[in-house]
Amino acid sequence: MEILQNPHRNTGLNVEILRDMPAPSTNASQVQALLARCPSAAVTPLVQAAEMAADLDVGQISIKDERARMGLGSFKALGASYVIAYSALIDGQDQSQKTYVTASAGNHGLSVAAGAKAFGAASVVFISKTVPEAFSKRLAAQGAQVMRAGKTYEQSMAAAQDAARDNGWSLLSDSSWPGYFEPSHRLMEGYTALMAETDEQMQTPSHIFLQAGVGGLAGAAAAMARKLWGQTPVIVVVEPSHAPALHGCIIAGDFIAATGPDSAMGRLDCKEASLIALKGLAHDADVFALISEAEGQAGADYAAAYRMESTASGAAGLAGLLASQAHRVALKLDCNSHVMLIMSEGPEE
Questions:
Q1: CA 117 – CA 101 distance, rounded (Å)
Q2: Does residue 218 contact residue 329 with C-beta atoms inside 8 Å?
Q3: DSSP string computed for 199-255
Q4: Does the CA dihedral 332-338-341-347 come out positive or negative?
Q5: Calpha distance 304→306 (Å, rounded)
Q6: What is the pLDDT at residue 204?
Q7: How far is 66 from 77, CA to CA, in rounded Å?
Q8: Confidence of residue 278 (pLDDT cuts 50, 70, 90)
Q9: Could you tell me the strand order of the sheet in which 170-171 lies?
Q10: CA–CA separation, 142 vs 136, rounded Å?
Q11: Is the pLDDT score of 107 beyond 90?
Q12: What sign does the dihedral 162-17-26-231 (CA atoms) show?
């Protein structure tokens, strides 16, 4: 594992591309109020992994288990579905004539499809040629029209943008870029419910390891952590070394696109950071860490050994903790540390 102490901590990145971007929302009460109206919504468990803690020589490990969130298998259920619910129930917009379109490397597409289906809208999800057919079938089962385009997530997103423009559809991305940020800001707001629940389930942690692709979950969770627990937790953002989207921007001190081969951590294999997430994490995160493909798989294997089956993407925060043994002094990890992790998705079907 390679770690980078964040030189922009508490100041953020003062660069032109981020100036018009909002910081991540911390309005969890609004999200929880809408969730209370959803029959399938329920608080997900916080697992106290005492055996893991003993094995890794830390005082406590608390794992927020998102693997069954709202029956969709990941934290993403809190995102796009919340945006659509807000549009229908708060803004009062008729959904019956709307079509939501997006690109997805994993669970975001399921959230779009499920939210659209629940409120009578249509959905179209673009996936790259590398996404497994089993996932395509899961999307179709939620009512989505599935389209394959490109070899990468970024190429499928470009196809989704074109389709939205050409057909008058509503683009609902989990990323943000110049000229597109309001839907993704609302979507990230949905993730704040996860941290609000966690605050009611545990005491303040000393460390939080957050996996990141475009950075939506990490950005929302870090912003909430600072609101709830102040400067106490050491926040570590974990990315694949093949997709150092946020890490590269922090080094450059500006937005840059990452380059690299495909990562087996498919939901984290994103080469361009969400600008909202980048703005938040440049201010809130203490450390940016890169893990190898082998370290990512080791995290999934370790989770399975402790009966918490996930994927290399879903267990990447745990993988970061596993790989941090050589960096314990730099990360201020010791036998008294209380580490929070998020198991962000269940195993692939």
A1: 13
A2: no
A3: HHHSPPPSEEEEE-SSSHHHHHHHHHHHHHHTT-SEEEEEEETT--HHHHHHHHTS-
A4: positive
A5: 5
A6: 98
A7: 9
A8: very high
A9: 145-148, 122-127, 99-103, 170-171
A10: 10
A11: no
A12: positive
**Left if phi > 0, otherwise alpha if psi is -120 to 50, otherwise beta: which for 256?**
beta
Task: Dig out the tokens for 45 from the structure.
Answer: 């468990």
In angstroms, rounded to a whole number, what is the distance separating the alpha carbons of residues 97 and 83? 16
Residue whose token pair is 């080469």? 271
Work out the average pLDDT over 179-199: 95
Quickly state the pLDDT bin for 349 (edges 50, 70, 90). Answer: low
Q: What are phi and psi of 63, to 5 degrees?
A: -115, 115
- CA–CA dist 22, 280 (Å, integer): 9
Q: What is the DSSP letter of 345?
A: B
pTM beyond 0.70: yes
Asked if 96 and 120 count as a contact pair (C-beta separation under 8 A), the reply is yes
Across 25-39, 59-73, 244-258, the highest mean pLDDT is recorded for 244-258
CB 75 within 8 A of CB 192: no
Contact yes or no for 57/216 (Cβ under 8 A): no
Q: Are 276 and 222 spatial neighbours (Cβ–Cβ below 8 Å)?
A: no
What digits encode the pLDDT tens for the residues 305-339? 999 999 999 999 999 999 999 999 999 999 999 99
Q: Which helix (H) or strand (E) holds 3?
A: strand 2-5
